[in-house]
Amino acid sequence: MKRPHYVLLTLFLALMLSASASTPLVAHHSFAAHYDMQKPITIQGTLVNVRLTNPHSWFFLDVKEPDGTMSRWSFEAGTPSGMIRNGYKAAELPAGTAVTITGFPARDKQKVGMLQRLTTADGKTYGMFGPQESPGAK
Fold first, then answer.
1. Which among 8, 15, 62, 94 would be 20 to 30 A from 22, CA to CA?
2. Cα–Cα nearest to 63, from 42, 46, 77, 41
């Protein structure tokens, strides 16, 4: 007995759908779930590295703690494409640049935060998606 092609196609699609439904879903995380948006922080330090990698950019800085020890903080920012579109250039903030970052701390009490605003010693400001005063900034 020959089966019509649509029956085979239907069986194939049903198998594919059930296989894809069994794989775990990868979802974008919520900033509010990871960061405490009710407790803004301000951190001063020296940039060590700016990493423009998907899905989000990261700013790493060394911070002198009140007891005199140094610690490494990491701040998550917007997408690299958003920063570049707004005029950010990789050489703009080299290692050693003194910065002040305002943002929100991670809920797990690690030295991690979400960047809201970064200000250099000369007053240039950057938001989550790069330069605040550039012609491309939105």
1. 8
2. 46
Which pair of structure tokens corresponds to residue 115?
A: 């960047």
Query: What are the tens digits of pLDDT across the range 108-135?
Result: 889 999 999 999 999 999 988 887 654 4
CB-based contact 73:47 (threshold 8 Å): no
Query: Which residue type does 70 have?
Result: M
Q: Which residues contact 68 (CB under 8 A, 6 or more apart)?
A: none
Partners of 72 in beta bridges: 62
Q: What is the 3-state secondary structure (H, E, C) of 44-108?
A: EEEEEEEEECCCCEEEEEEEECCCCCEEEEEEECCCHHHHHHCCCCHHHCCCCCEEEEEEEEECC
Q: In this structure, what token pair is assigned to residue 43?
A: 């951190």
CA distance 74 to 88: 19
Of the listed ranges 28-32, 56-60, 70-74, 122-126, the least confidently predicted one is 28-32
Can you tell me the distance from the alpha carbon of 118 to that of 94, in angstroms, rounded to the nearest whole number?
Answer: 14
- In the chain, what percentage of residues exceed pLDDT 70? 72
